[in-house]
Design brief:
Elements lengths: L1 E4 L2 E4 L3 H16 L3 H22 L5 H21 L8 H15 L9 H20 L7 H8 L15 H9 L4
Antiparallel strand pairs: 1-2
Helix pairs in contact: 1-2, 2-3, 4-5
């Protein structure tokens, strides 16, 4: 299946269009006020460019420059509407830093080893800082369900049983 973004022909897997429908629904859910509604199309455009970059193998310097140009233009449009907009959300980054400290605790060492005590100290520092920004944050049932699922070590996505249609679509994909 072929797509086109500002006169750059690209070969895109068919399932990326299904993903964009889900993205549309997700974006509409979160874009409730007027300022956010104005961001919808520019963010969607930027995400389309990011998806194109992701699904394409490097195309040579000229095509790569065109993709960079489109990404630059899309980001500039988003930032012209909201200069504080960012792909990285501070809250998510801090949560990741806290979880990273937990992941770094070495269970092959004694629980009170110097290394583990240092990891715990860093965890507490991150949590203390995070608590000032988000004092009511808790890990709840949604997070338990999310983190207790088996995750693929290669892509870190939750594994779901494949359907016959998914298998057929995957067999038909070619990215060039």
């Amino acid at each position: 299946m072929y797509g086109c973004f500002k006169n750059i022909p690209v070969r895109v897997p068919a399932y990326s269009y299904k993903m964009s429908n889900t993205t549309d629904e997700t974006l509409k859910h979160f874009l409730k006020n007027e300022r956010k509604e104005k961001l919808y199309e520019p963010v969607r455009t930027m995400f389309s460019v990011i998806n194109m970059i992701y699904f394409q193998a490097p195309q040579g310097e000229e095509k790569n420059k065109l993709l960079l140009l489109r990404l630059h233009e899309a980001k500039a449009e988003v930032l012209s509407l909201d200069p504080s907009w960012s792909m990285n959300r501070l809250i998510d980054l801090l949560i990741t830093q806290m979880f990273d400290r937990i992941d770094n605790i070495d269970i092959t060492q004694d629980w009170d080893s110097d290394f583990n005590l240092e990891q715990f100290k860093k965890l507490q520092e991150r949590m203390t800082f995070f608590k000032h920004l988000h004092p009511n944050w808790r890990l709840g049932p949604r997070e338990v369900a999310e983190y207790s699922n088996c995750t693929c070590e290669l892509c870190y996505q939750v594994r779901h049983p494949m359907k016959k249609d998914d298998l057929e679509e995957i067999k038909s994909l070619t990215i060039s």
